[in-house]
């Protein structure tokens, strides 16, 4: 059966719109990200195989059975800074956010790492030295800094739970987190 849960969101990502039915059925959540004037779509998978198929490559340190959740920023796959995020096994259901973010080069070599702990984001260089910190704010749709039409499209997507929204406090960067209805 063709899964149409995220059909209304596909207009924002050529990659998402080209997914096979098999891959689309395995997405359990999407994140719309608006950063630096551009919209990107991040897919979340709860297993390694669809993540690997979508990425088309392996990444240093990202392995099967190490994580509960694998995220990929689809639009970053065509860049020199591929954005990957993971949630370690056993941490997905916790109240606070505990995830890792990475930037990889086109060869899958890690070039940067971020740790999301609660509402804080800590940025580390390749040597593991802390080089910066951001804070996130969570709330309603007023936090969305991207195109307002996105909010209307989300409202029309009847197979998605009401979204969560967050933004970086000191950057023009916001997120709409979309989860399938059970």
**What is the helix fraction of residues, given as a range?**
10-25%
Strand content: 35-45%
* Gap between N and C termini: 17 Å
Q: How many independent structural domains?
A: 1
Strand order of the largest sheet: 1-2-3-4-5-6-7-8-9-10
Largest sheet: 10 strands, antiparallel, barrel
Q: What's the tally of helices?
A: 4
Shape: globular
Catalogue the unreliable spans.
none
The secondary-structure element order is HHEEHEEEEEEHEE
Mean pLDDT: 91
Overall SS class: mainly beta
Count of extended strands: 10
**Gyration radius from CA atoms, angstroms:** 16 Å
Could you name the key traits of this structure?
mainly beta; 4 helices; 15% helix; 182 residues; ten-stranded antiparallel beta barrel
Give a verbal description of the structure.
- Helix content is 15%, strand content 40%.
- It has 182 residues and is mostly beta strands.
- The chain has one domain.
- The longest helix is centred in the last third of the chain and has 9 residues, at 148-156.
- The relative contact order is 0.17.
What topology does this entry show?
Layout: H1 14-17, H2 21-26, E1 27-35, E2 38-45, H3 48-55, E3 67-73, E4 82-88, E5 98-104, E6 110-117, E7 120-124, E8 130-139, H4 148-156, E9 164-168, E10 173-179
Antiparallel strand pairs: 1-2, 1-10, 2-3, 3-4, 4-5, 5-6, 6-7, 7-8, 8-9, 9-10
